[in-house]
């Protein structure tokens, strides 16, 4: 019986492929361009996602925070944050594919990670979001859209890594439009727009 080959470590590159795999459902063209920049093929992306899912669902899987530390290394920053009544820590890791963004994990005092998504890097300029036309795929994060078009209403995502926001935004003519924006890993994927009644 042949010896079992050791599995290669799961790397930051593999993690970026996991992020892209979920985004491919909405923006295959952008994902393909990103894959080419990373120098990997579709099979590499599928394999990275398969391995990630295996880690998530292993009988003795590590905590989310331990998993991210093992894959991404030590975070570039750890910042105390208060959200409503909850004190937590925000851990940030760089993501080479999106140098202006960071992968953020919010960790409760008991060590449980309760939110994991892409956010704008501290000090990086955010997009100017004034109209529906500014809402291009991959142009903004959940919190940027929420601030630009407040008030917003959260929408249930179609998967654990997906979020949605409903809000009103003007189009180029200034007419109010009802918008439903979909985000994957915190990054805008698409917006459905209709005229406000």
UniProtKB/TrEMBL annotation:
It comes from the Bacteria. This is Transcriptional regulator. It comes from Streptomyces siamensis.
